Model the fold of this input.
Amino acid sequence: MPVAVSGNPLFLTNFIAAVHNDAIMVALALFGIYAAAIQRNWKGGLIGATLVTLSIGIKPITLVFLPFIGLLWAGRRASWPRRFYIWALTLAYSMALLGLMGLINGFGFGWVAAMSTPGTVFIWYAPIGLIGFLAMIVGDALTSNGRVWMDVVHTIGTVLSALVVLVLMFVGRDAKIFRRLAWAFAALVLLAPMIQAWYVVWLIPLFAITGIRSDWQLDTLFFLTAFFTIYAVADQLDVFPYLDLSLISARVISAIVALTFGVYLWFFDPATKRLFRSRYRADMHTSII
Done:
C-alpha cells in the first residue's frame, strides 16, 4: 500500500509542497518502530526509542509510540513483569534523552506546553470539537459559563483517548502490535478537539502497512482525503487576498473549484471512478431483480 501514502494528495500538499515539520516527526517515529520490529532485542529497542524520542521532540503526540516500542523490545510472549520493566526502561530512557536535549538547547521541558497549545482550541468537524461547542452553547444559556462545559468535554475526550491507548497496550496479540498502535494513534487524533488536514497523513502509513481493505475502509480513506483536500483549499488561502476579493468570495471560489475536481475524480477519471463502479453495478443488479 505505498501508493496510499506517497500518492495521497494530503501527503503531497502538506508534507512535500508545504514542507511541514510533521513529515520529519512521522518519519522518525516510523523508522523507530521499524528498527524495534526488525531487532526485537535491547539494540533494536534503544535505536527505536531514540528515534521516537527525537520525534517526540518535534511534537509530543508521538509519545504514544513508546509503549509499543517497549512491547517489541520485550519480545514475543514476554511475561508481564518483563513488559512492565521494559516499559519503565523505555520511558526513563526517553525522558532522560529529552531532558539532555532540553539542557543543551536551553528550553528544558518548557516546549511541551507550547507544542500542546492545539489541544486548547477546537474545530467544528472534529467530533469532540463539535460536541464541546454545543456544550458551550448550552452552558452559556444555562449558567453563562459555557467555556467550562466545553473544557469538560475536551477533558473527557483526552481521558477516553488515554484509556484507549492503555487498553491497546494490554489487550491484543503480539502479531497485531502495529495495528494496535495504528488504532491508539487514531484515538488520539479522533478524540481531540482539533483535527488538521495533515493529521490524516500521520495515520495512513500505519494503516497502510497493516492492510486497508477495499470496502468501507478504503471508502473512508477516500472520503477523508477528499474532505480535507477540499477544506484545505477553501479555508487556508494565501493568494486570493492579493486579487482584491473578499475572504468569503475567495473561499467560495476555491471550494467550487475543489468540489468540481472532486466530482471529476469520483465519477469521470478512469483511474479513480472504479472505486464506485462495482458498487453501482451491484445496486443496479439488485434494483433489476
